[in-house]
Write a structure and sequence with these properties.
The chain is α/β, with parallel strands linked by helices. The protein is built from 6 helices and 6 strands; from the N terminus they run βββαβααβααβα. The strands form 2 sheets. Strands 3-2-1-4 form a 4-stranded mixed sheet, sandwiched between helices. Helix 3 packs across helix 5 and helix 4 crosses helix 5.
């Protein structure tokens, strides 16, 4: 059974979807990806935040107190998407890579547009750090939570990269 709850942060509301295996989705506010996810899991049950603790690591991350997550999660996607998302998990806190970097890493050097498509479908933002991907010229491009949130997350990591 899929459950969910939401909580407010300095970057806006976050919705967490999970089952017994761990987190299935992390979405921002009213974004359309969350709505699509909800349509896929129509029977998701809203639960009380007091009964679960998935948000504690996310709040520590947003407070600059945590650089890596130990939260259990499950990714479901095509084999290409899984390659891309797994490559994202290897990007260190405060590091930036381009779509092309990821395409090369997964052995598909000309598939940088497809990498962008896979990032667009990333169901677990922040934990699977698609916010660390930038355009070839260094521009901030594409992020489900909005470019303002992406910029805030990158600034947070830049400020805290060398701490603790």
């Amino acid at each position: 059974m899929v459950k969910y709850y939401s909580f407010d942060t300095w970057i806006g509301s976050i919705y967490l979807y999970f089952d017994e295996s761990g987190i299935l989705g992390l979405y921002f506010g009213e974004n359309s990806d969350r709505k699509n996810f909800e349509n896929h899991y129509k029977k998701a049950v809203k639960v009380d935040i007091k009964d679960y603790n998935y948000h504690s690591e996310i709040l520590k991350y947003l407070g600059g107190e945590l650089k890596t997550f130990d939260l259990p999660f499950t990714l479901k996607g095509s084999s290409f998407q899984m390659k891309v998302w797994n490559a994202l998990l290897n990007i260190g806190y405060g590091e930036l890579k381009t779509y092309k970097d990821i395409a090369i890493e997964i052995g598909s050097p000309k598939a940088y547009r497809a990498v962008g498509g896979a990032l667009n479908k990333n169901p677990i933002s922040i934990i699977v750090p698609c916010h660390r991907i930038i355009g070839s010229g260094g521009a901030l491009v594409g992020f489900g939570g909005g470019l303002d949130v992406k910029e805030k997350l990158l600034q947070l990591e830049k400020r805290n990269k060398n701490s603790f």
